[in-house]
C-alpha cells in the first residue's frame, strides 16, 4: 500500500474524540516509525 496515504489517514484520526481511537493512532504511528 501507499505508506504516505496510510500515514495521512492516521493523521486524520489523531484528533478523534475517542481516546481509544487516538491511542490506536499513536500506536500505529509508532509502529510505522513516524
How does the SSE layout of this entry go?
Layout (H helix, E strand, L loop, with lengths): L2 H11 L5 H14 L2
Helix pairs in contact: 1-2
What would your notes on this structure say?
- This protein is an all-alpha fold and 34 residues long.
- The protein has one domain (3-32).
- Helices cover 74% and strands 0% of the residues.
- It has helices spanning 3-13, 19-32.
- Helix 1 (3-13) packs antiparallel against helix 2.
- The relative contact order is 0.21.
Short description:
By secondary structure, this protein is mostly helical.
Helix run count: 2
Q: Report the principal-axis shape.
A: flat
Secondary structure tally: strands:
0
Largest sheet, if any?
none
Number of domains: 1
Average predicted local confidence, pLDDT: 87
The percent range for strand residues is under 5%
Helix proportion: over 70%
Which value, in Å, is the CA radius of gyration? 9 Å
Give the end-to-end Cα distance, rounded to a whole number of Å. 16 Å
Sequence of secondary-structure elements = HH
Unreliable stretches covering 5 or more consecutive residues? none
Keywords for this entry:
34 residues, mainly alpha, 0% strand, 74% helix
Amino acid at each position: 500500500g501507499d505508506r504516505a496515504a496510510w500515514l495521512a489517514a492516521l493523521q486524520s484520526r489523531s484528533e478523534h474524540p475517542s481516546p481509544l481511537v487516538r491511542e490506536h493512532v499513536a500506536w500505529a504511528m509508532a509502529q510505522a516509525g513516524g
